[in-house]
Write a structure and sequence with these properties.
Length: 341
C-alpha cells in the first residue's frame, strides 16, 4: 500500500492546496472538513454559486479533481449520513450497498478477547454515530443478526449500559501533561517600537540602482487603472524583496501588468527590461513597450504584496487574485490569462 508516511504527505499537500483554493474562491462554504481525500462542507448560498465553486476547485490544479454529491436534505460522508431535520443536523449510520458485514468469525483462532469485544466495540461505534436513539436501537438489532450469522452467541446488546447510553467524548481520553512554570528574563521592549512601514520604497543605493532610479514608484498603495480602485500595499517592499507580487504600469497609457517572483524584485524586473530591449514581442510586456511612442523608461514598478516565507503555490494563487482585483487580464490589462506571463 506504499510508504507509511504517504497519507501525511498527501494531507500536507492538500492542506496547502485548500488554503489557496478557498482564499481565491468567489464564495466560500460555511465549514470545510476533510479526512484525507473525503471532504464534507456546508453551503449556505444558492445552487448556481455552488456549481461555480465546484468548477473553481476543479480548475485550480491540473491533476487534482473533485467529484461531488450534494443535496438539500442529506448527504453521506465516510460511514455517516448527515440529515437536515427541523432546522438542525442529525447523524445516522451509512453503509455502502456492497458491505457484506463480514465480521471476524467465531471459529477464528484469534484470542478470545478479540472476539468477545466485537459486539461492544461495534455498538459503541453506533452510539457515537447515531444522534437519534431509535436509529441506534435499530442498528444494534441489525448488528446482532450480523454477528449471529458469523457464529457468535445471541447475547443481546444492552443499549442501557452506561457507556453506551452516555458515551464519553473522544477528547476525554486525551492524556494530561504536567505543566512546569519557568521563570525567565525577557529583555524589555523599547517604549516606542518603530512600526513596519507598508509600501514600496527605493533601496539605499538609488543613484546606482537602475530599477530604483528609473522605475520604482514609492507609495503605500496601488491603484487599478481600469477600475480606479486603490488598494493598500501589503508589506515593506524594495527592489531586493523576494517572494513578492508586483505591478508594472505604463506611464503613457496607464495599462497595467501583474506578476510574481520568487527571486528578488530587481532580478525579475531586469528580465522584463530585457524583453523590451531585445524586442521580444511574444511577451505582453515586451510587445507593449515596443509600441510607437513607448520606451523602456515608460515602465513604472510597484510592489503589491510581500509573502515572506509562504510557499510557491500561495504566491501563484495570490497573483491570480490580484489580476482579478486590479482587472489586468486582456483586454483591460497586459496579462494574457490567469497564471501566464
Amino acid at each position: 500500500m506504499g510508504t507509511r508516511m504517504a497519507p501525511s504527505f498527501a494531507c500536507l499537500f492538500m492542506s496547502s492546496l485548500e488554503e489557496c483554493m478557498l482564499s481565491t474562491a468567489p464564495c466560500r462554504p460555511l465549514i470545510w472538513w476533510r479526512y484525507i481525500d473525503d471532504i464534507f462542507f456546508i453551503w449556505t448560498s444558492d445552487e448556481d454559486s455552488l456549481l461555480t465553486f465546484i468548477n473553481h476547485i476543479n480548475s485550480f490544479h491540473s491533476t487534482i479533481k473533485f467529484t461531488s454529491d450534494y443535496s438539500h436534505q442529506q448527504v453521506n460522508f465516510l460511514d455517516v449520513t448527515v440529515r437536515k431535520e427541523h432546522g438542525s443536523l442529525s447523524t445516522d449510520l451509512y453503509t455502502k450497498p456492497t458491505d457484506t458485514h463480514q465480521y471476524l468469525h467465531s471459529s477464528s483462532c484469534h484470542p478470545r478477547h478479540c472476539k468477545s469485544g466485537i459486539a461492544y466495540s461495534q455498538a459503541l461505534r453506533l452510539r457515537h454515530i447515531c444522534s437519534n436513539n431509535s436509529s441506534f436501537i435499530r442498528h444494534t438489532d441489525a448488528l446482532e443478526k450480523h454477528l449471529i450469522a458469523r457464529g457468535h452467541s445471541a447475547r443481546r446488546i444492552d443499549s442501557n449500559e452506561p457507556s453506551l447510553k452516555n458515551p464519553s467524548s473522544p477528547t476525554d481520553d486525551t492524556p494530561t501533561y504536567e505543566t512546569f512554570y519557568v521563570r525567565a528574563a525577557v529583555p524589555p521592549l523599547t517604549s516606542n517600537p518603530t512600526p513596519i512601514q507598508h509600501g514600496t520604497f527605493k533601496c539605499d543605493r538609488t543613484s546606482r540602482c537602475i530599477v530604483c532610479s528609473h522605475h520604482i514608484v514609492e507609495s503605500n498603495s496601488i491603484t487599478s487603472h481600469s477600475m480606479q480602485l486603490t488598494h493598500k500595499t501589503k508589506g515593506h517592499i524594495t527592489c531586493t524583496t523576494t517572494n513578492v507580487i508586483y505591478l508594472i504600469s505604463c506611464r503613457v497609457c496607464g495599462i497595467q501588468y501583474v506578476g510574481e517572483t520568487k527571486t528578488t524584485l530587481k532580478k525579475r524586473f531586469y528580465g522584463h527590461r530585457s524583453t523590451v530591449n531585445t524586442m521580444k514581442t511574444e511577451t505582453p510586456v515586451g510587445e507593449h513597450f515596443n509600441l510607437p511612442n513607448h520606451t523602456i523608461n515608460d515602465m513604472s514598478l510597484q510592489g503589491i504584496e510581500s509573502l515572506g516565507s509562504r510557499p510557491d503555490l500561495v504566491r501563484i494563487s495570490r497573483e491570480r487574485l490580484w489580476m482579478q482585483r486590479l482587472r489586468t487580464i486582456q483586454p483591460y490589462g497586459l496579462n494574457i490569462q490567469e497564471g501566464h506571463d
